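Title: [Solved] 6-phosphogluconolactonase 3D structure

Original question kept below for reference.
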Amino acid sequence: MTAPRLLWIGTYTPDSDPEAAGSGIHRAWLDPETGALSGGEAASGASGPSFLAAHPRGGLLYAVGECEQGTVSGFAVAERDGVPELSGIGGVPTGGASPCHVLVHPEGRHVITANYADGRVSVHPLADSGAPREAAAVLQHTGHGPNPARQEGPHAHSVAIAPGGRHILVADLGADELRCHTFDASAPEPVGPLSVAARLAPGTGPRHLAVHPSGYIYVAGELDSRVHVLAWDAASAQAVPVAEAAASGHDGPNHPGEIALSPDGTRVYVSNRGADTIAAFEVTAGGAGLRRIAETPCGGAWPRHFALAEGHIVVAAQKSAQLSSLRLDADGIPADTGHRLTVSDPACVLPA
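Solution (posted by the thread starter after getting help):
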């Protein structure tokens, strides 16, 4: 019998922006054999921990505080009487508003946050304890798009490591751009000057990215409901659009949320808010193309985020206040297991 897989769940809380009913960072367990979900209780109080990330060496967790005055906080993971617990090790301001994404750099020396409301990106060195320090850089941008309700200014929605590992990419939903900075974790000032790696079609609304080992980048367009394929050129630090595909076959309004690559690089998965589905795409042409091969109801409303774990996709259905699990078959096609777990206003799923 395979042991249950621990999942950390980020939520919106009464003091976050937006306000909601979560209690902080929750914990849950996934049964790898059945897809059953259990637990769901709060492991640590926190204000608006809507996105979580783990340190590569283990034992440390980071959460944004998605509030008007944004923060990023660190937590140490330990067990008490066999139950995983979180204890805060410190938090600092991000220098921006409503941080919605946090990335731990692969070298483990910095955390980087995307602040949605004002488009700023903050870079925080980590202390020896793993606690985030005051920002070494707060990166501001300008720009806007054609959607007056969503693109009146820059809105940094996520940060990713570009192919090759020498740059960070920022998906700016408000400006329809992938912003780019060189990044050297060993340097006293790790962040290089701003460039624009890609300008996407007006109204795309780039949200989250997935990076293929072959060097292609997949961008979820929150506003145009499409998945965009870009080819990365390391010499110029440019990403050139080469293909795109509809994120869903749904006829009504739809806003893609998370996008993720299967461990073997043959499938891309996208959550669709509106359609309330998980779409599966076959990676074609060595990474340069995508073909939608399935679209499966996710088991809840408004799948803001999901994670791949133990042959399953675990979905944070924000408006249903629940998690759901989908089993992946041998072809990478998801099917609903029927298992649900109540968690108030889930926004992120992070397998431990």
